[in-house]
Amino acid sequence: MATISDIGRYTVPFDRGTVSFNLPSGMTGSVVRSRPAAPLRDPVAAAIGAVAQPLGSSPLRALATGKTRVCIAVTDATRACPDHLLVPPMLAELAAAGVPDGAITILVAVGMHRASTDAEKVEKLGPDVVRRYRIVDHDASDEGNLVQVAVGPGGVPFRLNRLVAEADLVLATGVVEPHQYAGYSGGGKTVVIGCGDDATIAYTHGPAMLDLPGTRLARLDGNPFQEAVRRVARAAHVAFVTNAVLDDDGRPVAIAAGAPEAVHDHLAALAADLYTVPIPAQADIAVAGIGYPKDANLYQASRAASYLQFAPVPVVRPGGVIILPAACPEGPGDGAGERRFAEAMRQPGGPDRVIERARAEGIRPGEQRAYVMARVLQDVDVIVAGAADPEVVRSLGFLTAPTLDDALNQAGEITGPNASVLVVPHALLTLPLVQQQPTSSATIQARHI
Questions:
Q1: Per residue in 386-419, pLDDT tens?
Q2: Model-level pTM?
Q3: Which of 224, 249, 295, 306 is the most buried (most CB within 10 A)?
Q4: Strands 178-179 and 183-184, how do they pair?
């Protein structure tokens, strides 16, 4: 079981550090954390051992024998995935199989986000890997480097980076944690979404997909998004993945390698036990901790609010407030998807217009985050505390406060001074599950979001 407790002073992540605060007089608070789990004593050895004993797959060395074009898709800087632990054991097996360094390309799966910097590549993969191997950032808009690998419903073409489509061995890394669309991230998602084109991302992230009842946090079975990801991963012949589950402090607690679906199913079961926690009732206010790297921009940081409200029952009652402690030094974000998110959020008409337009006209990749946040903002206010550029944040329809103390006072003016406050230090990992039946309006929302 994850844990819920009452304490006097609260601490949540902020950038690479933390920030502490007390509740205003009259407010009552609880903190919800993922279940304590012992971090791997020797994560390097664990990663090597996972690759040596794969789940549902032949040994990687056997898969790699005779291969001349190998692509390893790795996560980008917005994911707290320990690629520096996961990639070297796979490279060692490729070398043991006789695959030369020049036959291997590491593809950074940025999706619609910005390209990674040299410093980020080094931080993610380590200097030795960066120095020794070819590393390329995916570009979802580069038509010359996109190849169709499958056809989806209604003839939607699923296209992936040519380096994936034309490789004779495709590998990937990933972190398994709650995901708003996929249920849990990991498995083949790094390849299918992180290395996909505009149409693939638009189809899988559009309003029609999100509005399906099976597209839910912490759900794999019957999840149409997950079914699409797995179908395309099979078509792309993703052969082998190494994935990790992390604790609230970003330390690996489990690592598995092997066939994408076998690894994903195994680690998702562990993640469900680690991350889900029952809470007695909806809260008036939630403080949703984020931390680095997700709080670098509003596109990523806003996930903390939508994760809480797209839980099986929304965590905050209608008319309540979610507080996001996030400096967002990159503003909305620098990638094409982040820019589209900002443009959609700024259009006249507020959340209702964002939703209406998305359902009537569809979305471009990145605009799905605007659709999701518009759904959230229809029911609760979101205050971003500590934003580097509050004016930019406000232009997207969010409230701002200079500090968490100010944000809580502002929230109290909205909800009333005797509000219940739920503090979720790691809101992108810990998934609170409301036990008490909410009011009728909240029940309706929970059924349709």
A1: 999 999 999 999 999 999 999 999 999 999 999 9
A2: 0.82
A3: 295
A4: antiparallel
Q: How many Å apart are CA 85 and CA 66, to the nearest integer? A: 25
Task: Write down the pLDDT at residue 438.
Answer: 67
Quote the CA–CA distance of 258 and 243 in Å, as a whole number. 9
Instruction: Give every CB contact of residue 108 below 8 A, 6+ residues apart in sequence.
Output: 74, 75, 76, 115, 116, 121, 124, 135, 136, 137, 138
CB 297 within 8 A of CB 328: yes
Domain ranges of the chain: 3-33+280-448, 43-273
Could you tell me what percentage of the chain is helix, strand and coil, using 3-state DSSP and rounding each to the nearest 5? 40, 25, 35
Give the N- to C-terminal CA distance of the chain in Å, as an integer. Answer: 26
Greatest distance between any 2 Cα atoms in the chain = 69
> Does the 3-33+280-448 domain belong in CATH 3.40.630.30?
no
What is the CATH superfamily name and number for domain 43-273?
LarA, N-terminal domain (3.40.50.11440)
